[in-house]
Amino acid sequence: MKHKVVKKNNTLKIIFGLTGIALAIILIVVLRGVALEEQNAAASTMLAGGLSQGAAVGEETIRMAVESYQFVPNTLIVNAGEKVTWIVDGTRASGCTRYLVSQQLGINRKLVPGENVIEFTAPARGAYRFSCGMGMVSGTINVV
Fold it and tell me: Would the pLDDT of 42 be above 50?
């Protein structure tokens, strides 16, 4: 009789253990789903090229930050022929990233901490490179 009680207790322990594992797996899947959703939202913003809403017709505002030795995002998208206001946060710029250069767009600016406003008219369709002062850190403005 004692044997049967021991088997019953072991069976219950196994069931509770498996239930706990299943709940842990479900929790992990749900949390990963939330994290992926947040990543997708961030990626959508980046794919939009940091484009801001509320600009007048024929005008666009794009935003970018200098994060130590990288541009975030490093790919921006604008429409051909439109007046572009490029707002660059230079708060964390250092070394050569304190300079923003695009020979193709005629831009050569020393960035200051805070917001730097650069205005230009988007040229014909194509990919236009920009970089730090030394050309080591770069990005692209895609004109569509």
Answer: no
Q: Which run of H or E residues covers position 10?
A: helix 2-47
Q: State the Cα–Cα distance between residues 5 and 55, nearest whole angstrom.
A: 75
Q: State the pTM of this model.
A: 0.63
| Rounded alpha-carbon distances, angstroms, from residue 93 to 69, 97, 113, 123 | 7, 5, 7, 27
Query: Does 113 sit behind a cis peptide bond, omega within 30 degrees of 0 on the bond before it?
Result: no
| 132 shares a domain with 85 | yes
Residue 126 lies in a domain: yes
Query: pLDDT at residue 122 above 80?
Result: yes
pLDDT, tens digit, for every residue of 53-76? 445 678 999 999 999 899 999 999
Nearest to 86 by CA among 59, 68, 104: 59
> How many domains, the chain?
2
**Runs of H (alpha helix) within 75-127:** none
Of the candidates 70, 119, 62, 111, the one whose C-alpha atom is nearest the C-alpha of residue 91 is: 111
